[in-house]
Design brief:
alpha+beta, 52 strands, binds ligand MIG
Length: 817
């Protein structure tokens, strides 16, 4: 049992240590404390650990920053594992048992080690921490060492290659219409970095600071990650989990996991700026149904509103929105509407959000205390001060009518916030936000401090408000801007991309890095938002890739030719339909990933290195896998990146024994040549996968008819699982769900497939299960509890198909020659 000093006593000892080190440290002082503080030359440094594998470092000149956060909850920050401290003249070691920190008491340089004593993240040589580096009276600069074999990911949907090494980025939420493949900054700021070295060893780094910051990954100074932050205090976390998957789980432990999505949001969604009338919106839904394009939602962009004013409806063009909702509902289609945050500054016009908000002093103030007014879509507008609980509650109430009508989802755009006719594209940095938030001191903060977190607080208000209005339904919120932790409130998309092959390629690294940064529900505008009309081939390929993305929404700009699935004629539409169909067949697999995400934080869309960290040894292209992605642990998508020059390319798989998803054929080696063909998106399956699939439906609201199929791809570590519930309510929290895992074993004489006992009491749609076992060379016999089952061998497909009744309890199917 270790003796625990009170923090106060420990603190005073540390203060003595800084002035006369020998008093405390020279005598090889050792103790157990819940945080450790050291000061040197007026700078205070504090080490603590919310969990044994996560180190938190705070520092200030002279005082520590406020212990408050928009990203990490009070409950998480209140956790303190005991620290063992050993002080010596030249080094202080603070250990959690899982991780340790070495501090140089003279320079305050910090190095974090894992349990085995390997460096996880060390300060760079030279000045590691400087306050006020630009002599503006605030801000700091932090330099971390970049080992030659380390690669860096995260930071959300920044442009550029998947690997951040040799690139530099700014975190400053920016409305960047028609951004290019190297434009920076974009809409979100997520100062989280996942590092992976060529041995696969990982670390996480999260700078919990909302001010404008830059992260330079060795672009200016090779081998140093140079972080400049323009204000606020040093408050960062180093995560020491061994693998990339551990780090993502650590990060979502800190900042929160996305709530389980409504299932319909995983369906295909059609959007446009804008469907201009009620009839047009309904017509799009009708056409999707008539053309048998499975789909779940239609989106209304800003033009459904009266004079572009949020929370109004243009009664001339949308005479009966409740009827549109119910018409769509009758087709199993959901409606999502945009609700931008810029409330029109329209006094005496019967516009309640403005009148009421002004009366209650809801909006952001200027430095002189008056309400800030800036032009956006509705003309002059005012902006709710989302840093106040009262303003968030007020915002949430604005959804009352839409929620009552049955609108299913809400879209928060322009929340960087975007302001027109100003070179900064946003509000003045000296605007005043009032922080009235549990855990924070009640104080005023400048827009410079609040800018990057403003969009996230907008989505928190939306999520909480919609939930309060309809507590039995899972809210769906889509946001453009956000900050670390925003995944708790909203899905996101990558903003105003363009219709080009380069953007299709970019979408992969953007969505993968978003997933690593907590945002598991992410999509991009399928077909491209801005630019010229996509070529038929580009739109088709984009839909194919999108079918394997977490969020799958076709959306495009005003004044652009139509970009729905059916444009370019029936041949293109047929290919597109085939892929959208496949997504719906895969829905049990995809929805099960959503369940897994809600429990672990692991993203739906993943880089290959997440499960196969060794590919990192392939250098900055990750052994050629940086253009690929995985959906869950089992499916690997290897898109060609061009069409104009469809040269053959080699797909390198992480190991041997993979299967072709479409043919089910087992590949002869760990690589294969692909010659691009428009109707083939190369997808491969991990050997050892069990993938649950369902009969085709036209929406997630339609009950499938037929058996549950388990596609089994024999191999090592063979497993899979299915999660089901009603897809829309919170009944799953009371046990009304179904979760069942499956394993398979290659035995001496054949194969066995095990069903584990089912969890939860949700009644499935199926009464029968089909096992489709791939890679089979010969016919075989199957049995369950000693009884023979019918087993059909398909010699050309190399499959064995076995039909059996539903198995809710543990059961084993034995397959033998
Ligand atoms: O200034 O609402 O990114 O998806 O269609 C443009 C109109 C405002 C930007 C969004 C885009 C949306 C558009 N919006």
């Amino acid at each position: 049992m270790s003796y625990r000093f009170s923090s106060a006593r420990r603190l005073s000892c540390a203060l003595i240590a800084t002035t006369a080190l020998t008093l405390c440290a020279g005598s090889a002082f050792a103790a157990s404390v819940d945080h450790y503080t050291l000061t040197k030359n007026g700078v205070t440094l504090e080490i603590s650990a919310p969990r044994a594998d996560i180190i938190r470092v705070r520092a200030g000149d002279p005082a520590l920053p406020e212990d408050a956060s928009w990203a990490v909850s009070q409950a998480v920050r209140a956790q303190h594992v005991p620290l063992n401290v050993t002080e010596a003249a030249d080094a202080v070691t603070v250990s959690t048992g899982e991780a340790s920190v070495k501090i140089d008491p003279n320079t305050l340089a910090v190095s974090v080690y894992d349990k085995a004593g390997h460096v996880v993240l060390a300060d760079a040589k030279g000045a590691a921490l400087q306050f006020d580096p630009d002599h503006l009276g605030q801000g700091f600069r932090l330099r971390k060492a970049m080992p030659v074999d380390a690669h860096y990911f995260g930071l959300g949907d920044k442009t550029g290659p998947l690997d951040r090494r040799n690139e530099a980025f700014t975190n400053w939420n920016t409305d960047n219409f028609g951004f290019g493949v190297a434009t920076d900054p974009l809409y979100k700021s997520i100062p989280f970095v996942l590092g992976v070295d060529e041995k696969g060893q990982s670390f996480g780094f999260f700078m919990d600071n909302t001010w404008r910051s830059t992260f330079d990954f060795g672009k200016t100074e090779p081998d140093a990650l140079d972080i400049n932050v323009q204000g606020g205090g040093v408050d960062y976390y180093v995560m020491t989990g061994a693998t990339p998957a551990d780090i993502v789980q650590d990060y979502t432990y800190l900042t929160g996991k996305p709530p389980l999505t409504p299932e319909w949001a995983l369906g295909f969604q059609q959007s446009h700026w804008s469907y201009m009338t009620q009839a047009e919106a309904k017509g799009i839904a009708d056409r999707l149904r008539a053309d048998k394009i499975p789909s779940d939602a239609i989106w209304l962009d800003i033009d459904y509103q009266d004079k572009l004013r949020p929370f109004t409806v243009n009664k001339e063009t949308f005479p009966d929105l409740p009827k549109l909702v119910s018409d769509l509902k009758a087709e199993n289609m959901h409606l999502v509407v945009i609700t931008d945050l810029h409330i029109a500054a329209a006094p005496n016009a019967g516009y309640a959000p403005y009148d009421d908000g002004m009366k209650k002093d809801i909006f952001v103030h200027k430095a002189d205390g008056s309400t800030f007014v800036g032009p956006v879509w509705p003309g002059d507008a005012v902006f709710p001060d989302f840093s106040r609980v009262a303003a968030r509650d007020w915002w949430g109430e604005q959804y009352k009518d839409f929620v009552r009508m049955g609108v299913s989802g809400f879209w928060n755009d322009m929340n960087e916030p975007s302001v027109f006719n100003t070179p900064t594209k946003t509000m003045p940095l000296d605007n005043i936000h009032r922080i009235e938030e549990p855990g924070f001191a009640t104080r005023n903060a400048t827009h410079a401090e609040m800018h990057n977190v403003f969009g996230m607080l907008n989505t928190e208000a939306t999520y909480d408000g919609v939930l309060k209005l309809n507590p039995d339904q899972r809210p769906f919120v889509m946001t453009r801007a956000s900050y670390a932790g925003g995944q708790k409130f909203a899905a996101t998309w990558t903003g105003d991309n363009s219709s080009s092959w380069a953007h299709l390629q970019l979408s992969v690294s953007q969505l993968v890095n978003l997933g690593l940064s907590g945002f598991a529900y992410a999509g991009d505008d399928i077909g491209g938002f801005a630019g010229d009309q996509p070529s038929p081939e580009l739109l088709t390929r984009w839909i194919e890739v999108g079918a394997f993305n977490p969020i799958f929404r076709d959306h495009y700009q005003k004044d652009k030719p139509a970009q729905e699935v059916w444009v370019n004629g029936p041949d293109q539409e047929a290919i597109r339909r085939q892929y959208i169909d496949e997504r719906y067949r895969l829905m049990p697999y995809i929805y099960s990933l959503a369940d897994e995400n809600s429990r672990t934080g692991l993203p739906l869309m993943r880089p290959v290195f997440m499960a196969y960290p060794k590919v990192v040894a392939g250098g900055d292209h990750l052994g050629g896998t940086d253009g690929y992605f995985m959906l869950g642990a089992d499916l690997l998508v290897a898109p060609p990146t061009t069409w104009e020059s469809p040269a053959a390319y080699k797909v390198t798989l992480p190991g041997s024994g993979w299967y072709d998803y479409w043919s089910g054929e087992k590949l002869a080696s760990d690589s294969t040549m692909e010659t691009p063909k428009l109707d083939r998106l190369p997808v491969f399956v991990r050997p050892g996968s069990i993938i649950p699939k369902q009969p085709l439906t036209q929406s997630t609201g339609e009950t499938p008819v037929g058996p549950l199929t388990l596609d089994i791809y024999p191999g090592d570590d063979c497993h899979g699982f299915i999660y089901q519930d009603d897809g829309i309510s919170f009944a799953y929290k009371a046990g009304h769900f179904l979760r069942q895992s499956f394993t398979c074993k290659i035995t001496k004489s054949g194969l066995s497939v095990d069903f584990a006992a089912r969890e939860g009491d949700y009644k499935p749609w199926w009464t029968g299960v089909t096992l489709l076992i791939h890679g089979q060379a010969a016919a075989a016999k199957a049995s369950l509890k000693g009884k023979a089952l019918n087993a059909d061998f398909d010699a050309s497909a190399h499959t064995l198909r076995i039909d059996l009744p539903d198995q809710a309890k543990a059961a084993t199917v034995t397959i033998q020659p």
